[in-house]
Design a protein that fits this description.
By secondary structure, the protein is α/β, with parallel strands linked by helices. It binds nicotinamide-adenine-dinucleotide (NAD). The site of nicotinamide-adenine-dinucleotide (NAD) has 24 residues, from helix 7 and strand 7.
Length: 409
Amino acid sequence: MSGRESTDRYFHEAADMMGLSANMQRLLLTPERQVKVQVAMKMDNGEIATFIGFRVQHNKARGPLKGGLRYHPEVDEDEVLSLATLMTWKTALVNIPYGGAKGGIQVDVRKLNPSELERLTRRFVDEIHDVIGPDKDIPAPDMGTNAQVMAWIMNQYEKYHGFNPACVTGKPVELHGADGREEATGRGVGLLTISLLEKMSEDLNGARIVIQGFGNVGTFAARYLFERGAKIVAVGDAFGAIRNPDGLNVPDLIEYVTKQGSVKEYPESEPVSAEELLLQECEVLIPAAVGGVLTKENAPHVRAKYIIEAANNPTHPEADDIFEERNIIVLPDILANAGGVTVSYFEWVQNRQHFRWDLDRVRDELDRKMSEAFARTWDLATTKKVNLRLAAYLLGIGRVGRATALGGI
Ligand code: NAD
């Protein structure tokens, strides 16, 4: 089942429950615009390389389109569309005035040097600058992209449209970025992990956590939870996975990864296979890498009590059903990882007001938004006797549906 079939299934389940007509469901699922462009560039060795770039603009009923930009070899149109729809429900769920979009380039960034990465990014902006912008569609970092890439996007966009820092978020703090944006998704994941454990009367102190993916989201979530007493017992990335049942020293591990590029062969640990990582006995499993990693094959063997979806779309619907039968609680992606887009919104607000917030204000506002969305989702799940994913979709789709109906066609 593709990522899009998964997200569509969750949508239809919620929309049917809300009694939305078939026509309304079709309207809400159909993307408003899909852009697919050739990104051709000269590599440093003089050869011409051709990449394919995508931007899918799903729904702007509640405001300008918003969504990350992913550089990954497996990026395709279907995946980008599914991620764009997730952004629509996510921005509505945390109640920020945006619609949903997503973009990507099919590329293995490990094979590019920094000047090639910069040229690739600038060429992509050349192709899409007329469909993005501060009131149209605002990209942000995702897998394979970072603050530096966002700085190049801003700079290239400004060559066409003049000074416009709000055209992209996740920029470096020294260049119109927001304090707290880099840590925001991981912080939100950590915060809501604690909220869920509290609701379930579980002790955070010593709670065993396993994290797949040790990039931006995985490292900040690990640090947040480690600092508050949880025990990070296993982590993995694209190159390998490790475990230490006594708990990993997270700050030291992050320092190691910064130097070595991977968690692989970290001294205070033993290796585990990528598949075993997901099957470790623990209280909380946090997939924070790619989509589709929890499947009907491995779901029966997962030994976690809670799954916090830091990655987008990590769980196949069949696996979701198995987790429900096994009473494993899943905190869905559109809620768990919404911290990033929330602070992106704060960055956009600061850029437009030319007024910088300090880190304490960013963190306070983020924690408030995330806690509010969690509380509403939890309460709806309890009242309607549905799981957290369905409750989150009901809230998100409900808000987009009402905005669409009020605005009219
Ligand atoms: P990143 O590129 O910083 O890190 C990704 C990590 O996953 C790296 O450690 C990489 O080695 C690992 N990885 C990649 N492929 C893997 C595989 N097949 N198996 C195991 N590990 C693998 O990316 P990120 O920004 O941390 O994003 C991670 C996930 O979180 C993505 O699904 C992304 O869509 C989602 N997300 C990110 C943000 C954000 O603000 N960065 C916001 C919302 C959602």
